[in-house]
Amino acid sequence: MAKRPTKASKTETPVAAPRKAGRPTSAKPPRPRAKKAADAAVEPVVEAAAPSPPEPNSEPKPEAETANPFVMPGAEQMQALETLSINIARAAMTAQSAIAEAALSQADRPAALSPDPFNVGPAMTSVMTSLAARPDKLFSAQADLFSRYMDLWATTSRRAAGETVAPSAGDRPDKRFKDPAWSENPMFDMMRQSYLVTSDWMNGLIASVEDVDPMTRRRAEFFTKLLTDAFSPSNFLASNPAALKAMAETNGESLVRGMQNFAADLERGAGKLAISQADYGKFVVGENVATAPGQVVWRDELFELLQFDAATDQQYAVPLLIFPPWINKFYIMDLQPANSLIRWLSAQGFTVFVCSWVNPDQDKAGFGFDEYLDKGIYRAVEKVLEQTGSKTLNTVGYCIGGTLMGAALAHMAAKKDKRVAATTFFAAQHDFEEAGDLLLFTDEHWLSSIEQQMDEAGGVLPGAAMAETFNALRANDLIWSFFVSNYLMGKSPAAFDLLFWNADQTRMPKALHMDYLRSMYGQNLLAKGEFGIGGLKVDLGDVTIPLYFVASREDHIAPMNSVYRSARAFRNADVTLTLGGSGHIAGIINPPAAKKYQHWTNTALPATLAEWQAGAQEHPGSWWNHWAAWLKERSGEQIPARDPAKGPLKPLEPTPGAYVKVKS
């Protein structure tokens, strides 16, 4: 049995206190010189003498510390290192286990339909062949890259020497490198700038190729950009100072959490990585999003018709019917009370109806534009007029819902159907000649691949497939930012209603989707007057009712130039066009109270967007008030407010209804 230590006697030499961990602060005593052999031989041996008593009034001299070139960390540092090691091991085991489970879950599935579904290989071959045939251009490009690196090395050397160096003209703000360490730490600053120099040079080289088909070059540009974005040093733990700092400060806990997030996303994607963009558990449709009050007044196999409660005592006589895109759910227009377009329209005195499309399953695989025209547009128009007793109504078409609405207006014009008095298009395209990067996804090679994918899914396109395409259009914002935050930093996704909606995708019927991709993006038939729908070839030039177009300046799905061309395609209509700030969603869902962005107006509609912009007037904030004034002039007189529960169509259930709650 171990004895407890006893107190030291007065005659014992006290034990020195242990040294603190870290580098020694006292000077090391000089090592004794080796004595010459002759001196050593004659030097007398002296007995050890007792220490002399200290002189009066003299301070005792501290003994010199024993030199120790291998300073061991203290207990706290050892514990931190041990915790860090354990957590790194835990993170690695979590990731390996998740990957193994994903591999097993995918083992019985067929291999990828194509190793190159977007047909990038032939595009890159054409570009590289062109560059090889122009050695002078290639030599010039290499000289340019060398010059850029020489400038970078010179700047880095000056900084290392202590000189203050102003940022270069090309050192533009980049959200990926917003952490101060990317510029304050010389190593990470060099890494960041070296990456930017190389990626900018590579993307510029591909874009400069002239003697290849423009669409081929554009495909090569797009996927070169995807590649260079993926290889950003911010996307790797070892080269991301913010992630390394988080790992050090948490003793590796951030990495454990990150790998747990990674495993959860693999499980949610059934073996495919489905990166979480929001805390999906924080939102419930009908409880804290999509809460505008109203009633479902009609339901059939294709849509539910929602009528929203009046917010004023008086309403305009002409009702308003909104057709959202069937690729998303309608509640982007009713996320929260503060930014709800539906609530705002009700407060302006409009009777608001929304067509809430069904989330189609395999039984709708054969539904195409004809069904969505007849059972969608026409039936919804009929039911709104029946419910309100009005002779006419106004409509809104958002994105692909606007494409369908434009074709429907041309069909109505051909049949002399005048039930729609005026229509508004939110970020909608009808002329697809300049439809942006989505044109790259309509190559016949890719279309064949996506068609096979839909066949395997029973005739519908899974919602996640289209989400992946849209995310690829803005990879840094919608893929890599979440990859870094969720996995490298170990953060939990934020409770963001818009990104919750963005992930709540719907399926699409094969017949409708393939016709849309081939007829619109592939052949631009609607703008050419050659698109067949409802038994007719329709011409947008037949439409003569008032139209209001809204484009967004930074829209990557419906680019502003494409929307402008679409507005001009209705050559015989009275068209008003407004350009809003921001993108496809924020540019449209921009309530006036937010006082964000700006918008531009111009009563003319000249040949090009550039001419229109040159003559446009800029206004601060949202475009909603400008549109509401236009719409009120075309909505008839004021009448007592309508109650959705008291119309001819009997209410089935409160809004938002059942269809919007169906998950893909």
UniProtKB/TrEMBL annotation:
One of its GO terms (molecular function) is acyltransferase activity. InterPro entries: AB_hydrolase_fold, PHA/PHB_synthase, PHA_synth_I, PhaC_N. One of its GO terms (biological process) is poly-hydroxybutyrate biosynthetic process. Residues 1-68, 160-180, 635-664 are annotated as: Disordered. It is found in: Cytoplasm. Residues 171-180 have a biased composition (Basic and acidic residues). Keywords: Acyltransferase, Cytoplasm, Transferase. GO terms for cellular component: cytoplasm. Residues 39-50 have a biased composition (Low complexity). Its main location: cytoplasm. Residues 174-345 form the Poly-beta-hydroxybutyrate polymerase N-terminal domain. PANTHER family: POLY(3-HYDROXYALKANOATE) POLYMERASE SUBUNIT PHAC, POLY-3-HYDROXYBUTYRATE SYNTHASE. This is Class I poly(R)-hydroxyalkanoic acid synthase. It comes from Brevundimonas goettingensis. The gene is phaC.
